[in-house]
Amino acid sequence: MQKLSVKVAAQRLMEGNVIAYPTEAVWGLGCDPLNKQACLDLLQIKRRPIQKGMILIAGGIDEFADILSALPVDQVHKLDVAWQNQGSTGAITFLVPDILDQVPYWIKGSHNSVALRVSQHPLVTSLCRAFGGPLVSTSANRSGKPPARSRVLVEKYFGGQLEFTVPGALGGATNPSKIIDFYTGKTIRAS
After folding, report:
1. Which end of the chain is more exposed for a tag (fewer CB within 10 A), N or C?
2. Closest CA to 54 of 137, 118, 131, 128
3. In terms of residue numbers, what domain contains 78?
4. Which residue from 56, 11, 27, 48 is spatially nearest to 155, judged by alpha carbons?
């Protein structure tokens, strides 16, 4: 059943739709980051200003190869080690400079960096792999409301505005990912 749900969700993403899915701590909304209209639809559904930017989530660091290609190898290795070890410290999102300016403005917002996270949630990993790359990932809530921690609340928040909701359980983390500026090490959002 899970494989079929992931396959259906990946197809909906490829068709330019917004979906909901469970992550480590909260339910997320996602779409194809390269599909401008899908991203604008997601922002409208969430009532999130485009200037804030959104997180890209992947099943493995290899899915960020293009974005990370301008970073020195030792810096990419540092990211990889941090993401591999995040199980003990909670999920980590890094703000990484978009050196080659290849990430669209509807993802970065008014920033020069892009928020990247490699998930260890098996469903998210499977979804990214089935889709063929990273997804937009933002908490399933309207701006200013608490993030959804259940499928019931996702449906209450968004009703029929989503094309698909992937069934599954949260990963057991108590807080959304910590956000860290990769170069300065400054914590932007504590977990």
Report:
1. N
2. 137
3. 2-189
4. 27
Over residues 57-69, the pLDDT tens digits come to 999 999 999 999 9
The answer to whether 14 touches 32, Cβ cutoff 8 Å, is: yes
Residue 43 CB burial class (10 angstroms; 0-12, 13-18, ≥19): buried
Instruction: Summarize pLDDT for 79-107 with one digit per residue, the tens.
Output: 999 999 887 567 899 999 998 999 999 99
- pTM, 2 dp: 0.94
15: how many CB neighbours lie within 10 A of its CB? 12
- Give how many domains the chain has, as a whole number: 1
Checking if the pLDDT of 1 tops 60, the result is no
Structure tokens at 181: 């500026």
CATH number of 101's domain: 3.90.870.10
The token duo for 145 is 């409301």
